[in-house]
Amino acid sequence: MSDLMNFGYEGKAAVITGSSKGIGRETAEQMVKLGAKVMLVARGETALKEAADELSQYGEVAYIAQDITEAGAGETIVEAVIKAFGRLDILVNNAGSSFAENFEDVELSDWEQDIDLKVMSAVKMSKAALPHLKKQGGAVLNLTAVMGKTPQPNSLPTTVSRSAGLALTKAMSKDLGKYNLRVNAVCIGLIRSDQIEKRWQKQAPDLSWEEFSARSGEKIPLGRIGNTAEAANVITFLCSDLASYVSGTAVNIDGGSGHAW
Ligand SMILES: NC(=O)C1=CN([C@@H]2O[C@H](COP(=O)(O)OP(=O)(O)OC[C@H]3O[C@@H](n4cnc5c(N)ncnc54)[C@H](O)[C@@H]3O)[C@@H](O)[C@H]2O)C=CC1
Ligand SMILES: CC(=O)C(C)=O
């Protein structure tokens, strides 16, 4: 590979939460193929092991089954990374869920769970990773949703958690730039993964995927739902040396929609 396109992943170590499937798994695959050592994190051991077995054909992969909302999860995960790889350069806060309802229908406990998973887990992971990231510099990438920029009706609590993720990204980038630590976000619109396939089965089980994608794409300028590689491509770029002067930004991966539905 010419210097012009050197992603700089060789010899680096990354941790990606929620990486047994979907966008997280695809990102892990790209980073491993480019030479990074990657720690996969999710709750279910079976899916994790399966993903790790598949990805290990391309390079060095380890995994830890851990619910990131549990007390001490950040420290446990980072300890596992250091034990496995001896360093940490890249943190991708990817694990998340969609919880989008009308304000009147959201219980206080739903608010707490959503903010805990999508905001506080990113904070706790970043805090635990920071002493290691500071050593040589690196990248933090927060997955958010385009709805965090443009909250729609019936979009709570997720739009609030996602807006908080954007503020966290911007503020962290300003505080941590002095360590050559870049902090960016991506704002996902609609990407085919388990959560979108479940929506397809619930809303339109009689449609083929192509029909459902085209129908969902009526309000998307590019006319379709994206795929996980299209999301991972941007994440992999933002965490790479090719983006060495990019920090504090939030890139939409949404086919141009500006909102999810
Ligand atoms: N697919 C889409 O259209 C959109 C996705 N997003 C967000 O992008 C990120 C990746 O999305 P997808 O790949 O679609 O998600 P997905 O639902 O396919 O996978 C999410 C991953 O997070 C893990 N996870 C969830 N809660 C966890 C917890 N407490 N502890 C550890 N792991 C946990 C799951 O096990 C899974 O591996 C998520 O944060 C998602 O909410 C945002 C907007 C739209
Ligand atoms: C789908 C999702 O995770 C959102 C909208 O935050």
TrEMBL record:
Q: Which residues form the signal peptide?
A: none
**Matches recorded under Pfam families:** adh_short_C2 (PF13561)
Instruction: Give the family this protein belongs to, as stated in its UniProt record.
Output: Belongs to the short-chain dehydrogenases/reductases (SDR) family.
Name of the molecule in the record: NAD(P)-dependent dehydrogenase (Short-subunit alcohol dehydrogenase family)
